[in-house]
Specification:
By secondary structure, this protein is an alpha+beta fold. The chain is about 25% helix and about 40% strand. The chain has one domain (about 5-120): Aminopeptidase.
């Protein structure tokens, strides 16, 4: 029997859980609580950059999240997957794929052409996930990440 993964928009009440999920993953971007609070409190259509903070749940328990932004003042809009993390005990169960699919859907609804991201070169699981969802490498940023030092693989997915 497969598990039912639910993806929904994050609320301010869930920000502490998102921060904890990010902290559980050494490869996730470690942002402060304030940044996530800002993402859930920003009203749509008020700014040139739209933001989305999504939470994935299994059996009602938050187990992963993704954050994305889209510059909507250009045509087509340009979207970026900014962060994606899944609790270690739930990795390999489709949670990351469900979050990524939701980000791509959100981006398409905004009329995005490309969706871009950077990922640590050492993060083989993430690279595999992104390639499976149509992302291709567009470049490398040497020494982009610190603690530990790593290159960023730049990737892009063109939405139809």
């Amino acid at each position: 029997m497969s598990e039912c993964i639910t993806v929904r928009r994050a609320t301010s009440e869930g920000v502490d859980v998102i921060v904890a999920i990010a902290a559980s993953s050494a490869l996730a971007s470690q942002w402060g609580r304030e940044r996530y609070e800002e993402m859930v409190s920003a009203a749509p259509c008020e700014v040139a950059v739209q933001r989305s903070l999504l939470v994935a749940e299994l059996a009602g328990r938050p187990v992963g999240f993704a954050s994305a932004s889209a510059l909507v003042t250009v045509a087509p809009a340009e979207a970026e997957l900014e962060n994606l993390a899944v609790l270690p005990a739930f990795q390999g169960r489709g949670v990351g794929g469900a979050l990524l699919a939701a980000v791509l859907h959100w981006s398409a609804e905004l009329g995005a052409g490309p969706v871009r991201l950077e990922v640590r070169s050492a993060n083989a699981a993430a690279l595999h996930l992104y390639r499976r969802h149509g992302f291709v490498q567009t470049g490398v940023r040497r020494g982009y990440y610190a603690a530990p030092l790593d290159d960023a693989i730049c990737m892009e997915c063109r939405l139809q």
